[in-house]
Design goal:
86 residues, mainly alpha, 74% helix
Length: 86
């Protein structure tokens, strides 16, 4: 397994869980499909520039935690804080 696969799978899982579990939105099946494609792309990119691909995968994970991907759905950190407050 490539070194970037873990963070990319986490990006997809966090996006899907935030949307469907924390915000009661329907499952968007484009997310798992895009996650698989991105994981494959990053695995191939590691062959050419290992450190850059891995760094970009981790940057993607940090970004998805704090940035709204859909204006109607809060970012995962916003959703988690709202959920913890009740």
């Amino acid at each position: 397994m490539a070194d970037s696969t873990g963070p990319i799978i986490a990006v997809g899982a966090i996006t899907l869980a935030n949307r469907s579990l924390l915000n009661s939105q329907p499952i968007d099946w484009r997310v798992p499909i895009a996650t698989g494609i991105a994981a494959g792309f990053f695995a191939l990119a590691e062959k050419g520039w290992h450190d850059g691909a891995v760094a970009f995968a981790w940057l993607s994970l940090v970004t998805v935690l704090f940035v709204r991907l859909d204006p109607k759905v809060p970012a995962p950190t916003e959703s988690l804080v709202k959920w913890m407050k009740g």
